[in-house]
Structure formats: structure tokens, C-alpha cells
């Protein structure tokens, strides 16, 4: 009975204390796709994620009802950092859904033009609005509509202290006439949230967050990659110095544990059984603030290294001491030389083998299709001798001769056989994620091996020049580049044996692998050069390569290849690839295979489509 009455009271007092328009509420999930398109179309960084942000602490003066109900202590605001743009999880600022949706769009436009941090939050936001409206005058009516409606929703400040009244008047004027207010008073409480503006990023407090240099990051090996990604909103985080407390027993009364978000400086222990990632994510969902400490013992890093690296007897066969390659640092906007060590390797225990029986029927069908490429014929124009007159060349010659004396040129065309002057390199991602099962009988790596085998059979039948490599990595000092077939090697049972011997590797340092593949392709004499990249996920590694760093380095490596006349094309089975592949390869530079089991058939078909016009 008490709980029932308490629930009714809570609903009543919460409803009475709220000042937003819950009936017109719009959730970020309803507009996330359109907001993302607007953000990137208006100049926002293509690799930034656009996602919802959870509420953050906001010290604003609260009404008596809000104090009783506990409302308005946290507010969901719009902000961004180098990794992503965070917009409010829900918006109910205006009395209509249409205006709340338009507010999401406006914030995305504003964020797309905000390139630096804030020196003065209110003055900088005014200037940002002025710049956007000056660049896009057609947005002025929409902004004025939002501004007028927003001012009408502001609370009555007539009974507040004079400094707060002055602040509110300055904010209203700044919203209605951006750029007109140059000074803002100092107040003890934050002003009522201004949802038309962006806020500073909710980064970790630099006074309590230890500084990490690059070397320390690599030694710490904070493992950011997880097999299960949380779809929750972004949490506020802080770092604290980890005390030298030893594992022990904590005695407390349960009544003193007020909430999940209250922090107790307690060593959580290092029991191996306490590694249930799914359960950890559920706990994180319930936290308002996630507090991290810098521990001296990095259990995850040491265990990953010891377990991931096989002994020399079981490892693949290294070919030489390795090659040093550069890497792009997007923060410094420069290519750092000799940053990665790439190790060419051969698959361990590979033996000559025939094409598996299960693939032989499919291989014959694909080979028959590819044999059509050999019979393609074309007209070679502008020849001195030929079967027919080249009317286009003759017309040009005739017109030029009427103007001035012109030297005679080739006026004939000759019918010739196909000249497929093309070199193709297939680069396969062999990261540990390929060890995942697609069904009870097949893993991703099995599909990748079948795809490369059929690819080899198809190109061998048409006589195209091709090579195949695989790659994985463990930090920048161990980028493993598996040699499956060189350009100079004949496709044979030995190559088929290597393909069947490949096994899942480690992480996906894609930039270094692409640079080495580019170097190999540039050494070929062909006029057409194609780089096919087969992957099941985005670039990542256990050091700083996670996130935007890996994306930017890969993009720069692809750009380098394109400048050298190489055409990169990505084939992926990652269902979330459309979030980042357009930024890396362009809208026409990739394809997503929605059914991974279809990859062995689709890979040769894609190659046929890409090269049949050559």
C-alpha cells in the first residue's frame, strides 16, 4: 500500500514540477538518421558519430516543487568533441513536435560549423549563429521562428535576484538579435538552459585526470575494443587517483548506500571470474556518472599480450626483419615516418592442396562467366591501316585541313581482341573477429577462405594478373602481413594450400596494410590497378589506433593510393559499415554483403562488374 501511494505521489509531483511539453516530446532515435545527414551535408566531419547524450549536472536555481520532486538537477544538452556530436536524448522544449524536430536540425547545422572550443560560451554561440545565418540566409526565417517560440517558453525571472534578471535579459536579447550582446553578468547559478546553443564538451576534469603521453598509452594498453557494443547514451566520466588500498573487506550499513552513482573508493578486485562484459554493460546503463581510476596493475593488457602471442613454434613463418612504414597523425595533421613495423609472413603448416570438392561446382560456373571477358573485342581507333575508316578522325582531319595545312594522321580503325591490362591485389582482413561463428558449421574465416579460393579460380581462368595478402596486427610494432600469392607466383595447388591454412589473427591496423599493398601495386607495369579490401569491421588496435585515429589513418592511406592511380574498393560484411565507409572510400567505393554466406559467390561477381569494361 505504501509503495502504491508513493508511486502515485511521485507521478503527481513530478508532473506538476515539469516545465517542458511532454505531449510534444521528440526522441533522438526518431530523427537520428536525418540529423546525421544534415550534419555531414552542412560540413560536419564525416567520421564523427552523431548520437544521444545523457543528462549532465546543471546547477540552476530550482523551484520549490522541483526541489521536492528532485527534478531539474540534470539537463540533456548539445555538445561535441573530436569523436562525436552529442544531442539531447529527448527534446520537449516547444509545444509542437514540428518545432522540436526543427530544433534537432538547427543544432546539427550549428555543430557542423563549430570547429573550435569555446572561449566565452554565450559570446561564441552568438557569433556562431551570426556566421551560419550569414552563410545561409534562407535559414533566417526558420531561426527567428525557433527564437521567438523559445523566448516564450522562458520562465518568469521578475522575482529573481537582479544579476539573474540581467543575465536572463541578456540571453533573450542574444537569442533574438545574435551578436548584439558583448557582456554578460556574473551569477551564482547557471541560467536556464539555452537549447538553441551548443555547450562545451563534457570532458574529463583535467585537474583530476592524469595526463598520458603516447608511450604511456601504448604501455598501458587500455583495451577499448569490445565484442558487444553498448547502444546506450553517452555517460559523464571522471578520473580519480587510485589509492594504494589493498584488497580487503568493506563494512557498511546498507542504508548508507544511497544510489548507484555515489562513488566509494574501493578496489574492485581482480578476480578472473569478474569479467562478464554483458553484465558490466548493464551496470553502466544504470550509472549517471562513470568514475575511473588509474591502476598500477593493468590486468587486461598483460593477459591479452600473454594469450594473444603464440610461441615461435606455433606462429606463422616470418619473412625477414620487417618493413618500417609511416602513419598519419590526424591531430598533428602530418605523416609520421617509420612509425609502424610490418612483418611479412607465410601461413604455418601450409601444404599443397586441391580446390575443396564443395567449391568445384561453383568454381566451374564462375569460370564460365569469366571466360566471356576473354572474348570481348573492341575498335582500336586512329590507325594508319585498318579494316574500316575512322569517321571521327577523318572529320577532325578534314575540318583542320580547311583552316590550315595539316599533317596526315591515322584515319582508320582496327578490330582487335581484348587487352585486359590490369593488376589486382586482394587484401583480406584476418583479425580475431573472423573467428566468430555465422552458424553451427561455419565461421567468418571459413567464408573468407572460400571467397579467396573462388576469386583465385576466377582470375586464373581469365588470365588476369593478381595477388592475395592477409593482415592483422598487435599494436604498431607488429603489423602482420600474410603472403598468400605474389604477382610473380603462378596460381597452383601450393597457393590453394596457403589459402586453406590461414587462421584468425589479432586486430585491424588497416592503414599500414593498405600502404604496403599500394607499394606492391605501384611496382606493376599494368595501366589499370585495383586494390580490393575484404573486411568484417572498422580499423582498430589495442593502442591509440582505436576510434578516429584509425579511421583517419586509413582514409589517408586510401587517398595516397588514389593519387598513385590505384582504385581502392572495399567489400565488407560489417552491417554498421555505412556509418564510416562512405567517409573512407566514397559512396561508390564500397559494398556491404548483408548475407556473409554469399561472400564466396559475390566476390568474383563484384570483380567481374568492376573490370568487365576494361
TrEMBL record:
Name the InterPro entries for this protein. NorD/CobT, VWF_A, vWFA_dom_sf
Q: Which SUPFAM superfamilies match?
A: vWA-like
Among CDD domains, the record links this protein to: vWA_norD_type
Residues covered by the VWFA domain: 423-610
Q: Which parts of this chain are annotated as the region Disordered?
A: 213-244
Q: Which domain of life is it from?
A: Bacteria
Q: Name one Pfam family in it.
A: VWA
Annotated PANTHER family: NORD PROTEIN
Protein name listed in UniProt: Nitric oxide reductase NorD protein
| Originating organism | Thalassotalea piscium
Amino acid at each position: 500500500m505504501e509503495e502504491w501511494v508513493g508511486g502515485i505521489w511521485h507521478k503527481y509531483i513530478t508532473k506538476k514540477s515539469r516545465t517542458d511539453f511532454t505531449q510534444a516530446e521528440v526522441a533522438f532515435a526518431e530523427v537520428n538518421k536525418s540529423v546525421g545527414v544534415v550534419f555531414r551535408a552542412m560540413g560536419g566531419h564525416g567520421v564523427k558519430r552523431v548520437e544521444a547524450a545523457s543528462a549532465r549536472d546543471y546547477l540552476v536555481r530550482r523551484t520549490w516543487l522541483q526541489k521536492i520532486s528532485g527534478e531539474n538537477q540534470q539537463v540533456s544538452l548539445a555538445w561535441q568533441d573530436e569523436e562525436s556530436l552529442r544531442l539531447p536524448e529527448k527534446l520537449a522544449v516547444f509545444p509542437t513536435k514540428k518545432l522540436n524536430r526543427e530544433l534537432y536540425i538547427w543544432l546539427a547545422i550549428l555543430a557542423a560549423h563549430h570547429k573550435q572550443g569555446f572561449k566565452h560560451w554565450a559570446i561564441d554561440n552568438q557569433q556562431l549563429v551570426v556566421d551560419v545565418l550569414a552563410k545561409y540566409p534562407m535559414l533566417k526565417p526558420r531561426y527567428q521562428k525557433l527564437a521567438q517560440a523559445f523566448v516564450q517558453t522562458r520562465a518568469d525571472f521578475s522575482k529573481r535576484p537582479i544579476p539573474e534578471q540581467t543575465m536572463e535579459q541578456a540571453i533573450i536579447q542574444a537569442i533574438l538579435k545574435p551578436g548584439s550582446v558583448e557582456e554578460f553578468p556574473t551569477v551564482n547559478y547557471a541560467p536556464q538552459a539555452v537549447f538553441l546553443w551548443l555547450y562545451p564538451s563534457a570532458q574529463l576534469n583535467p585537474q583530476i585526470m592524469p595526463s598520458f603521453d603516447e608511450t604511456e598509452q601504448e604501455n598501458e594498453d587500455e583495451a577499448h575494443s569490445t565484442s558487444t557494443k553498448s547502444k546506450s547514451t553517452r555517460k559523464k566520466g571522471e578520473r580519480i587517483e587510485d589509492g594504494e588500498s589493498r584488497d580487503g573487506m568493506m563494512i557498511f550499513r546498507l542504508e548508507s548506500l544511497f544510489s548507484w552513482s555515489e562513488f566509494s573508493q574501493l578496489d574492485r578486485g581482480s578476480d578472473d571470474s569478474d569479467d562478464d562484459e554483458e553484465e558490466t554493460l548493464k551496470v553502466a546503463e544504470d550509472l549517471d556518472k562513470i568514475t575511473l581510476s588509474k591502476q598500477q596493475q593493468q590486468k587486461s593488457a598483460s593477459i591479452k599480450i600473454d594469450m594473444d602471442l603464440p610461441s615461435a613454434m606455433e606462429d606463422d613463418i616470418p619473412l625477414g626483419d620487417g618493413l618500417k612504414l609511416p602513419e598519419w597523425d590526424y591531430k598533428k595533421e602530418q605523416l609520421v615516418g617509420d612509425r609502424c613495423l610490418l612483418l611479412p609472413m607465410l601461413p604455418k603448416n601450409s601444404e599443397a592442396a586441391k580446390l575443396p570438392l564443395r567449391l568445384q561446382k561453383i568454381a566451374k560456373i564462375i569460370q564460365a562467366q569469366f571466360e566471356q571477358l576473354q572474348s570481348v573485342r573492341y575498335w582500336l581507333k586512329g590507325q594508319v591501316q585498318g579494316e574500316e575508316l575512322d569517321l571521327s578522325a577523318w572529320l577532325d582531319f578534314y575540318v583542320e585541313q580547311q583552316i590550315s595545312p595539316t599533317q596526315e594522321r591515322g584515319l582508320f580503325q582496327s578490330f582487335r581482341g581484348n587487352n585486359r591490362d590490369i593488376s589486382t591485389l586482394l587484401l583480406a582482413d584476418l583479425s580475431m573477429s573472423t573467428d566468430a561463428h555465422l552458424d553451427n558449421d561455419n565461421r567468418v574465416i571459413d567464408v573468407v577462405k572460400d571467397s579467396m579460393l573462388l576469386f583465385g579460380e576466377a582470375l586464373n581462368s581469365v588470365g588476369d594478373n593478381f595477388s592475395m595478402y592477409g593482415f592483422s596486427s598487435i599494436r604498431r610494432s607488429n603489423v602482420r602481413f600474410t603472403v598468400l600469392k605474389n604477382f610473380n607466383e603462378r596460381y597452383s595447388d601450393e597457393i590453394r594450400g596457403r589459402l586453406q591454412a590461414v587462421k584468425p589473427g589479432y586486430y585491424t591496423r588497416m592503414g599500414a596494410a593498405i600502404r604496403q599493398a599500394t607499394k606492391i601495386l605501384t611496382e606493376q607495369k599494368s595501366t589499370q590497378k585495383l586494390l580490393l579490401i575484404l573486411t568484417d569491421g572498422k580499423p582498430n588496435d589495442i593502442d591509440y589506433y582505436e576510434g578516429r585515429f584509425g579511421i583517419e589513418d586509413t582514409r589517408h592511406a586510401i587517398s595516397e593510393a588514389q593519387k598513385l592511380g590505384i582504385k581502392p574498393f572495399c567489400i565488407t560484411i560489417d552491417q554498421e559499415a555505412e556509418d564510416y565507409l562512405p567517409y573512407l572510400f566514397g559512396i561508390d567505393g564500397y559494398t556491404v554483403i548483408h548475407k556473409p554466406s554469399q561472400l564466396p559467390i559475390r566476390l568474383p561477381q563484384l570483380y567481374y562488374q568492376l573490370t568487365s569494361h576494361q
